[in-house]
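Data card: per-record layout.
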Amino acid sequence: MTENVTLAVGDPAPDFDLPTAGGGRVSLADLRGAPALLWFYPAANTSLCTRQACDLRDHHEMFADAGYRVVGISPDPVPELDRFVAEQGLPYTLAGDESHETMAAYGAWGEKNMYGKVVEGVIRSTFAVDADGILTLVKYRVGTPSHIALLQKRLGLTADG
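The structure for this 161-residue chain is written out next.
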């Protein structure tokens, strides 16, 4: 098992370049010049991940109005991401990190306790990155039901723009 990285507000966001749903790519360099919201989740089309994805979809306008580009990152292969986008009508970018390198760089891959057993996997996490690539929000072990409320509070966003 690998030791988990822990990032903090003020740290530079680790660089990445990943394939996306729809056949493109996304990198940290692509996101420069505007804030971004990166959320790491375990698997497309599973109950909690779908709920989180749909919450972000339903509040996407709030993030867009504040200039945020939303990018979801999971270990899924691109065909699975394509299916997730199509089935849930997701308006933001989904990227696949099958090697887990990007997730590990952000501390979103590592040891976690699942039902009393220590396993290695995705640690549900969310990061806000400013226009210069600096982390402005770091939240590990995100609670799905409280995710949007946490982002609204910590990023100073309001649902009515």
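Known properties of this structure: Residues 17-24+33-155 form a domain with the Glutaredoxin fold (CATH 3.40.30.10). Residues 101 and 109 are 8 Å apart (CA to CA).

See the next section for split statistics.
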